[in-house]
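Quick one, probably user error.
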């Protein structure tokens, strides 16, 4: 029984199964299939836009934090009375 369940867990459809699935999808959805495909394409496009926006926001946050860190380090050096030569030695 366990071997059977493992077999089902790793099943991938072959060419014949894909044709059968396609025929069943056409029979079930018929005229709505182009609408569904169009909606799926729009959803994928929106998802990609969201991922890119999140990536850009993350980059903005990292650059902002880096700038704040540099400002704090510079202010700490000024408050301690250190200049570039003192820090390097």
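Nope, works fine. Designed sequence:
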């Amino acid at each position: 029984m366990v071997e059977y369940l493992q077999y089902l867990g790793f099943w991938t459809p072959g060419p014949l199964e894909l044709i059968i699935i396609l025929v069943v999808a056409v029979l079930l959805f018929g005229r709505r299939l182009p609408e569904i495909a169009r909606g799926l394409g729009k959803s994928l496009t929106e998802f990609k836009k969201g991922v890119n926006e999140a990536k850009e926001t993350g980059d903005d946050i990292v650059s902002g934090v880096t700038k704040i860190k540099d400002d704090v380090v510079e202010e700490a050096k000024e408050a301690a009375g250190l200049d570039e030569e003192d820090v390097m030695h």
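The chain has four helices and no strands.
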